[in-house]
């Protein structure tokens, strides 16, 4: 198995990382079995976040007694120096380790967040402090905005980036990948299966793996999924003509309704978090039931019901999505899930 070098970190990692979002949905014993099986199969990079409820805790318990080297990646949405520094220490306790290799400032998706993290008391300097104290090795950042991510890369302050990339969201190929490669920044590709909405997830993962300079980060919540993903990675072949035809067909079918999370549609006049609402299908597949019924996702669902179909969002969307119709459709999907 040819490992992949994660940019200037010089970490040699398995071709896919273990995405820690879905293990929120399974019980602790099941999560531990999945993680340990992943390590047994060769996966040596596990990615999680402070915001993924008990994901860090489950990973920490799975790592107890493991004698193989496993690299850890976590994240915090805290924007202050002291706040993210304390989150690093919380992550260390949860994961049961003395050091975390990669720590991200999580979800820097807009200009306000970009400016905040670089203020004198901003999150970047909290991670710099953690690095100086040996609590983390590498400072990283994740973003759903390619424009903001380009500016983050240009600062040359990050060793690793995490970017949405799949065969529908191919925009990073134009600017993000060349910029990151020029600076030798490691690239983790989140959402390689578009959050679970691409009909053929195996093909989606195979597509992402064609770029040997990045490490896809699929979310995994069963041993069956895990073993299928590992098999694709270990027996990777070029995409066939038939597979390209299937990709093109899927893009054609999904392209008119697929949200890229750019948030150019914002702000909504009635405060709807549009990109969250119109990606409900993905969240219903990945989030714990409690978050869907009582957390931030449920709050977004309630706000969506205030949509007036004014059409302001549609005038801003660079992909010409029928946003009011998509909001209505996703409200119905969530309502059915909730049994309302």
From TrEMBL:
Keywords: Iron, Iron-sulfur, Metal-binding
Pfam families: Aldo_ket_red (PF00248), Fer4_9 (PF13187)
GO MF: iron-sulfur cluster binding; metal ion binding
PROSITE patterns in alphabetical order: 4FE4S_FER_1, 4FE4S_FER_2
Domain 4Fe-4S ferredoxin-type: 298-327
PANTHER family (UniProt xref): D-THREO-ALDOSE 1-DEHYDROGENASE, NADP-DEPENDENT OXIDOREDUCTASE DOMAIN-CONTAINING PROTEIN
Protein name (Swiss-Prot/TrEMBL): Oxidoreductase, aldo/keto reductase family
């Amino acid at each position: 198995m040819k490992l992949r070098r994660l940019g200037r970190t010089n970490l040699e990692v398995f071709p896919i990382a273990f995405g820690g979002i879905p293990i929120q949905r399974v019980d602790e014993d099941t999560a531990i079995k999945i993680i340990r099986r992943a390590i047994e199969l060769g996966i040596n990079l596990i990615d999680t976040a402070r915001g993924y409820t008990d994901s860090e805790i489950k990973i920490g318990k799975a790592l107890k007694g493991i004698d193989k080297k496993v690299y850890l990646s976590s994240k915090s949405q805290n924007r202050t120096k002291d706040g993210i520094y304390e989150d690093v220490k919380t992550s260390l306790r949860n994961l049961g380790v003395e050091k975390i290799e990669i720590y991200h400032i999580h979800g820097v998706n807009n200009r306000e967040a970009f400016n905040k993290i670089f203020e004198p008391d901003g999150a970047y300097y909290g991670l710099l402090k953690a690095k100086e104290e040996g609590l983390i090795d590498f400072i990283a950042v994740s973003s759903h905005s390619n424009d903001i991510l380009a500016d983050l890369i240009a600062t040359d302050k990050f060793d690793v980036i995490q970017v949405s990339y799949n065969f529908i969201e191919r925009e990073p190929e134009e600017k993000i990948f060349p910029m990151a490669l020029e600076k030798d920044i490691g690239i983790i590709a989140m959402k390689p299966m578009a959050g679970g909405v691409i009909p053929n997830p195996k093909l989606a993962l195979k597509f992402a793996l064609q770029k040997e300079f990045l490490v896809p980060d699929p979310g995994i919540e069963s041993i069956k999924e895990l073993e299928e993903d590992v098999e694709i990675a270990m027996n990777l072949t070029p995409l066939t003509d038939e597979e390209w035809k299937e990709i093109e067909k899927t893009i054609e079918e999904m392209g008119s309704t697929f949200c890229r999370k750019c948030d150019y549609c914002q702000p909504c006049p009635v405060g709807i978090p549009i990109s969250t609402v119109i990606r409900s299908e993905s969240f219903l597949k990945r989030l714990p039931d409690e978050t869907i019924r009582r957390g931030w996702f449920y709050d977004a669902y309630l706000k969506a019901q205030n949509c007036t179909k004014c059409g302001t969002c549609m005038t801003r969307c660079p992909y010409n999505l029928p946003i009011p119709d998509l909001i209505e459709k996703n409200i119905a999907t969530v309502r059915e899930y909730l049994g309302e």
